[in-house]
Amino acid sequence: MEKYISSSLEETKNIAFNFSDNLHGDELLCLNGDLASGKTTFLQYLALSLGVKENVLSPTFVLRSDHKGRRGLWLYHFDLYRLNFQDEIESTGFFDVLEKGVVAVEWANKFPEVFSDIPRYNISFSILSDTERSIEIWKY
Q1: Domain containing residue 102
Q2: CATH number at residue 106
Q3: What are the backbone dihedrals phi and psi of residue 75, each rounded to the nearest 5 degrees, phi first?
């Protein structure tokens, strides 16, 4: 496990950029944490480091957004916050894009059984103060 404390957007950017150096396009990232803990901000910087040109916003109302990065690398961004049942995940196209790019799932902890047998990075965000966030990354 790697643990980071970020006290600024610049520090979060550096953490995301350094983490992205390990990504090649067949990874699952499960992002968990309370509202406003930094999940989407981290993903925005991750997307930037992967060469995504457009803004990455939380897809809470559309559940999924797809972004093309450098050299054809895709970032598939899912937000499960509004889902209530595990079988709804299939309708998002999650299983269709798994291993076809970097797949980032916010609120993955709502359905841990879906992800438990898939190799992945679990990335947990915690609010420490108004300006500090804890970011913990495990590889499974």
Answers
A1: 2-139
A2: 3.40.50.300
A3: -115, 120
